[in-house]
Design brief:
By secondary structure, the protein is α+β, with helices and mostly antiparallel strands. The protein contains eleven helices and seven strands. It has helices spanning 12-46, 54-79, 92-113, 124-135, 138-160, 181-256, 265-296, 307-324, 345-361, 409-413, 422-432; strands at residues 303-306, 328-333, 340-343, 368-374, 381-388, 436-440, 454-460. The chain binds adenosine-5'-diphosphate (ADP).
């Protein structure tokens, strides 16, 4: 099998995928050409009133139906497993070449039966040269162009010497040109120049565009690699910071639990505050590590996760915290069925825990939290809603809510502690699962005093 991969190709598989798309597009276009030919015959015969001979009509109809038949065959080939995406087997480039050859033969026949050198269809050869140059290596397209030009001169010669009959389109030219040698030479040369120049221009354009595209892709790859290194570096540093803080925390615990003897209450009060601060620092570190991990991971673990059971586990863990804060928490599903998604149970648990922890944190005594699972809100998606009637999110700050480190002004004013990273982690986890997260504030639990927020996570039922 001849190698048709252009020498400047960086990524063969990627190129062949692009060519497959172009081939499919060409096949669709060819069905249109068939329709256009039938319209052309009817239009030119009955509206322009070209006096076709019976042979011409039959020939054009045969050509149109041949195009339809071979195109149907091409359609079958695309659906079969005949075409492989490797350089040394029958690949999309070979398939393109076959298509171009068939098209050129059909176009040559059409040109011949519609006037030869006088035919307006001869211009369409240029299209094929442009298409071929976008796909095939230059030597193949130049060979095709040379064969077409030689055939063109040869056919004109046969017609000129009446070796083969001439078919004209009588209303376009009132006099014959096929037997005018000067016309044949001038037209033939112009045709040849047009063919070769179009190959030359398109080929060099396609080549430089392809090279530029590859350079951009490579630059993007480099950037992604650099981002990966950066994230790993951040993770390593943050991890290093975590250890001394954890040690400080354990010393503080020793003092606060009076293992080292009694502590005066004023000092104890200050140390307790320091202990809370170390908790916050560790929370920030954990959030940063989670974000970096998610950025590094291109693929996540995928297994069947029973969402309702997972949510039940998370809600149960938070029950005592809610009781302590006098907040009622309810989990329910709309239909009595299993809600299974494909995903990483640990990451999903982290995402829902973050939402629930916010729903509790940004609420107050007498508050309500509802966690609802449903699969009718959006087709092929399971929706989990975490809805509260807490302090809500101000309208003017809604846009920034998923930005790293962003915290709304109302939570800062009221002194709630936090890192502004939790929602960022949730969003990344949801996106890794091909899902979507939305929110609204006020929520459906809002009343005159409580604004409330509702977060909805949509996860595909089958993410493959
Ligand atoms: P953190 O809670 O640590 O500040 P998050 O990234 O989890 O960070 O949330 C970002 C901000 O979004 C919060 O600071 C808060 O302003 C707002 N927010 C998130 N969830 C809620 C909620 N349930 N009710 C009100 N505000 C919320």
């Amino acid at each position: 099998m001849i190698n048709l991969i252009p020498s400047y190709t960086y990524n063969v598989e990627q190129l062949l995928t692009i060519i497959t798309k172009r081939n499919n597009w060409l096949i669709k276009l060819r069905y249109l050409v068939f329709g256009a030919l039938i319209v052309f015959i009817i239009f030119s015969k009955y509206i322009i009133r070209i006096n076709y001979t019976t042979t011409q009509i039959i020939a054009i109809i045969i050509i149109a139906f041949s195009i339809l038949i071979y195109n149907s065959l091409f359609t079958l080939i695309t659906k079969s497993k005949l075409i492989k995406n490797t350089a040394d087997s029958f690949n999309p480039l070979h398939f393109s070449l076959i298509q171009i050859i068939f098209d050129i033969v059909a176009l040559s026949a059409l040109t011949y039966y519609t006037g030869g050198v006088e035919s307006p269809f001869s211009i369409f050869f240029v299209f094929h040269m442009i298409l071929g140059s976008l796909i095939l290596p230059s030597y193949v397209v130049y060979t095709i162009a040379t064969l077409v030009v030689l055939f063109f001169f040869f056919a004109s010669f046969l017609e000129y010497f009446n070796i083969v009959p001439h078919y004209s389109l009588d209303v376009i030219f009132t006099y014959s040109l096929y037997n005018n040698p000067n016309y044949i030479i001038v037209f033939g040369l112009t045709f040849a120049i047009m063919m070769f120049v179009s190959v030359l221009l398109t080929n060099s354009l396609a080549r430089s565009l392809y090279t530029r595209e590859q350079e951009l892709k490579n630059a993007l790859d480099e950037l992604n690699k650099a981002e990966l290194v950066k994230q790993k570096y951040i993770m390593a540093i943050v991890h290093e910071i975590k250890s001394p803080i954890a040690v400080v925390q354990s010393y503080l615990d020793l003092i606060l639990q009076h293992y080292l003897g009694p502590v005066p209450s004023t000092i104890e009060e200050k140390l307790s505050r320091a202990r809370v601060r170390t908790d916050e620092a560790i929370q920030i570190i954990n959030d940063i590590i989670n974000i970096s991990k998610l950025k590094i991971q291109s693929e996540i673990k995928k297994e069947n996760v029973n969402l309702f059971l997972l949510l039940k586990k998370i809600v149960d863990k938070r029950k005592s915290q809610c009781d302590y804060a006098n907040i009622s928490i309810k989990l329910y599903k709309i239909h009595n069925k299993e809600y299974i998604v494909q995903g990483d149970p640990q990451l999903l648990e982290l995402a829902f825990s973050n939402l629930l922890s916010n729903a509790i944190k940004y609420n107050s005594s007498g508050g309500i939290i509802e966690v609802v699972v449903d699969d009718v809100a959006r087709e092929n998606f399971i929706m989990v809603e975490v809805c509260d009637n807490g302090i809500g999110i101000p309208d003017s700050e809604k846009e920034k809510i998923f930005t790293d480190f962003f915290r709304a002004s109302n939570v800062k004013q009221k002194g709630y502690e936090g890192t502004g990273l939790g929602l960022s982690v949730v969003k990344q986890i949801v996106e890794h699962h091909n899902g979507e997260i939305t929110f609204e504030s006020p929520s459906r639990l809002a009343d005159g005093k409580r604004r409330g927020t509702s977060f909805k996570i949509f996860l595909p039922i089958n993410s493959e």
